[in-house]
Design a protein that fits this description.
heterodimer; A: Methylamine Dehydrogenase, Chain H; 2 domains; four-stranded antiparallel β-sheet; 7 helices; 11% helix; globular; B: mainly beta; Potassium Channel Kv1.1, Chain A; BTB domain-containing protein (chain B)
Chain lengths: 461, 439
Amino acid sequence: MAPDDGERVKLNVGGEIFETNVSTIQSTSPDSLLAALTIPTSHGSIPVFIDRDPEIFAVILNLLRTGRLPANSSGVFSKQELLDEALYYGVESLLRSAMFPSPLLGIDASLVSTITPAADGVPSAFTATAGDASLWIAHGGQISVYDWSLSHSGTVRTHLNDITSICRVWAEAAAIGSESASGLHFYDLSGGRYVGSTHWTDPEDPRIHKARVAAVADSSGGVFASFDCLHRENSVLQIDKSTLQVAAVIGQQSGSSAKTSVPEKLRWVPTNGLLVGSAVQRGVFGCSGYIRIWDPRSRNIVWETSEPGSGRSSRFGDALADVDVDVEDSILYKVCSKSGDLGMADLRKLGEDPWVYVSDENPGAWKSDDGGGGGYSVVHCYRKQVWAARGGALEVWSSVKDNIRGDPIRRRNFVDKEEDSIRGMISKIEAGGDRMFVSREYMEGVEVWESCNFSSLVSVE
Amino acid sequence: MNFPIISPESNVVSVNVGGRIFQTTKQTLTLAGTDSLFSRLVTESSTRFVDRDPDLFSVLLYILRTGNLPARSRAFDVRDLIEESRYYGIESFLIDSLSNSSQFEAFDLRKSRILPLNGRDSPSTIAPTANGGGLHVAHGSKITSFDWSLRRKSTVVAAGATDFPGLQIIDLDNGGFVRTTLNWENVTSSTVQAIGSSSEFLFTSFESSRRNSNSIMVYDLSTLLPVSEIDHCEIYGADIDSAIPSTKLRWIQSCNLLMVSGSHSSPSGVSGHVRFWDVRSKNMVWEIKETQDCFSDVTVSDNLSTVFKVGVTSGEVFYTDLRSLGSKDPWICLGEEKKRSLNERRGVGCKIESYGNHVFCSKGSGIELWSEVITGLVGNASRDVLEERVFRKNSFAKLADSGENKITGLAFGGNRMFVIRKDQQCIEVWQSPSRGVSI
């Protein structure tokens, strides 16, 4: 037994006496109920009485002592009652960190659950990128909110019938757009209220009318949304968050060719103050698309590339399939549609041909002649790992530090099993709170992938 | 046995239940209500030994402290919990923690349980119990009642309404004897077409056996004595409109009005009426004559102060605002309003019911959920929707449900939706996966 001369405290919870070190209790935030009760007062030797259930308090106290939940507690106590109790004692942040999954490792992730909304279960859009690990799913005309523990915390029916883009713009508000109705619409999800709409109109140009939203990105300075008119004229608008009025029109273009079509993906890079937009069209002759980077303050294009057309000629016929930005390291990642090779470009050193290509001949990984299923389609970057989907298969690029050469080595591996891939084409990947969320075309629900430090040992006796 | 030390002047109470010591505060115990055993523990120090199971007691104490059920109660059968809560006199707390109407999440309803019925008759009509989410089911000439936990049931024999004269008041608690039979005054052997009630009155729609007159009788709910008669119609000649008895009676609490509706199908189409009666003054406040696209079912939502109908021709849902009673063409279509041939019968058999802030409409084997989009504009933001009130539809139809039978009835109670289908000797219970514990 470790010697401990610290001050001890006794608590009487519902008739059972608990004894612990004062330092254990005071590891919680100072304004929690428990910390307040252990301040030495005139109670004398009589333990402080708390009128709560003693069995759950035993778990909470173990959480305070060890920082983790006892392994058997999940079978005995429900998530909700542990949360209620932690809230009562003021230790919910500790419980939250104890209940979070292990750091997400693409090379060791498994499908843990599928979140399916009750009605209209096929998700048309979802977002999980905001910091608090919650998941917002748009399905049909509804938005369902799942909190950090992935329990359903509410559903709001919007006036739209088909939400195809969703972005979280405040803690409780969503900006949504639809390919079948014009405008960007704002909803307060905690109150279930429609807050307002923003439309792209131009009094001097009657063609700009009924513009639909293709992509939304949030920044501290406003919401960026790409709007597409029926005549394919398109633009990115910066929308003021307090007034919901258009603050700036960035990069208006005609939409007459693949190089000027509406951006389908917008990413805001806060470290550089840059907005990255991309669009890819998939045709019988392969992919064609562009990446364009704007500085929203000057509304100028900082850099752009379009494929096929620029870059190395050896990459002919292997145009980009999708783009994502590693916001922390300011690296632009693209996945080549045919080969599945990963292209990287440093956002701070963009030039004529900034791409560094990595390919992997990992025999277990994808073989390019495997036929069928189409090219790569979706790429998403999370915690310095790059996820790429090809049809229904999910791969991850992870890096190994190489001390000799300095540059990290990147390796590609499958995340999923073969039987996972036949469930359908992956339509979207997002990650947040050390979980990865995957939706598939025509499939109900959003898949949740997590890493776990415990093996799922199966007894076969 | 040592009680943990407590200062004598504190309000902490120690209770010995079956040999285990529990401590709690006087406030928690008095929460249980004055006639429960818990509150007696506060006052009488001599009875602080209770000869009952301590594990069950800890569950009940948990409910008193938090209002929720602990997860460890899953180890017990709900029947034991009910029995134990009755012993202590706190069953209402148990009901509240398990089936409270605030736990009803319309957007997150899933078919969770099936209640089988014995015998060969499929249910003809269902009605929720007065509180807690139980259900009365009429099937054949029997009435089966399920209590709020859906675990206990009782069945009595009763005679039907449309083939039997008079309204029977049946005491379901005491073996189902017929307490009294109410008949329409002066006219012998008239059949009951619909029943409704408010907190004071019982309303019954009668039609005479020769089907040439109909009326709605108002009875006092406690004495069951007739109070008044409204909406009396006698048929003279070929006036079809007045021959239609009312088949649905709904009390609108917020307006103190009774909504009565009836329809009749003839070769020339379906026609009907929706009338609003002030029962006290026996005045008809408003009448909607239904000639084109008559309702196949109609309901009223107090929370939304709106009347909803399903058109029998179009099969679409319409609404009219109770606050604008009296307008000429009151119905506003919520679906696609197309010109349809009068011979179409898309809405036949559709049922519409409201619960909370939502309206549920059954169409064939599927259910639509209509909900209002609430607007709270910020700043000088523009409103994007043209309609005055915006209702939007969700459908519960899933691929797996497509082969099921037509829905013949919907009822709501507690946190549950009950669905009955044609030729099925069972009742579906729809619930949302509760955030707490469900047992």
